[in-house]
Amino acid sequence: MFTGIIETTAKVVKIEKENTNYHFTLEVPFGDELAIDQSMAHDGCCLTVVKVDKEKKQYVVTAMDETMLKTNLSTWKVGTEVNVERSMRMDGRFDGHIVQGHVDQTATCTKVVDDNGSWRFYFKYDAKNAPSITVPKGSISINGVSLTVVDSEPGMFSVAIIPYTYQVTNFHNFREGTVVNIEFDVFGKYVQRLLEQYMAAQKQ
C-alpha cells in the first residue's frame, strides 16, 4: 500500500530480458537502505526488490509479461527517470490518498499548459476499459503521484502541477504523447462496480 507521495526518482541503468520477464536494474539515493522482498512503487506500479547492491545503491526488480502489457514499463530505456515510493508506514501522517500500486491502464498526455507558475496536464485514456472513473476534485494516481482531478470527462481528465511536484517527480519529462501509468481511486472503483451490479440486477 502506498500514499502517492513520491520520495524521489530512480534511474534505469540496465535492462535484461529472460523469457517473458524483464529484469530492471535501477539506481536510487536510498539504494543502500533497501532489502530483498521489499515492495516499491515504480511510476505507480508495485514491484518487488529481488536483488540489492548497497555499495552502488542499485537494486533489481522483475516485471512479468502481464505487467509489461498493461503499464508503461515497456517504454523504459536505460536512463529513464522513474518515480519511486517505498510502501506506506503506519506510524506517521497519511498524506496523499490510498494507492495500491495496481495500475489500471495507461493514459497518454495530450497537452501541457503553462499556467504562469504551475502547469496543467491533460490526459486521455480508454473509457471502455473498466474500471475507469474520474470526478472533479477526486483523486487519481499518475505514475504513482497522488493528484487531484481538475477537469473530468469520459476518457479525459486534467491535473494541475505545482513547481515542487514538477521538479521532484518525472512530470518535468512529460510531453504531448508521453505514456503514463494511471490508477483510479480505489473507492470510486468499488462504487462503480456496485452500481454496475445493481443495474444488472435491475434488468433481470
**SSE series:** EEEEEHEEEEEEHEH
Q: Compute the CA-based radius of gyration.
A: 17 Å
- Indicate the structural class: mainly beta
Note poorly predicted spans.
Answer: none
Terminal Cα separation, in Å?
37 Å
Tell me the strand percentage band.
35-45%
Q: Give the averaged pLDDT, no decimals.
A: 92
Tally of helical runs: 3
**Reading side by side through the largest sheet, how are the strands ordered?**
1-2-5-4-3-6
Largest sheet: 6 strands, antiparallel, barrel
- The count of β-strands is 12
Question: What's the quick description here?
Answer:
The model has no long low-confidence stretch (mean pLDDT 92). The protein contains three helices and twelve strands.
Tell me what you see in this structure:
The protein is globular, with a radius of gyration of 17 Å. It is built from three helices and twelve strands. The strands form two sheets. It has a six-stranded antiparallel β-barrel with strand order 1-2-5-4-3-6. A six-stranded antiparallel beta barrel has the order 7-8-11-10-9-12. The protein is mainly β. Strand 10 (145-153) and strand 11 form a beta hairpin. The chain is 15% helix and 41% strand.
SSE topology:
Elements lengths: L7 E11 L2 E7 L11 E4 L2 E9 L4 E6 L1 H6 L10 E6 L18 E10 L4 E6 L14 E4 L2 E9 L2 E6 L1 H6 L10 E6 L1 H18 L1
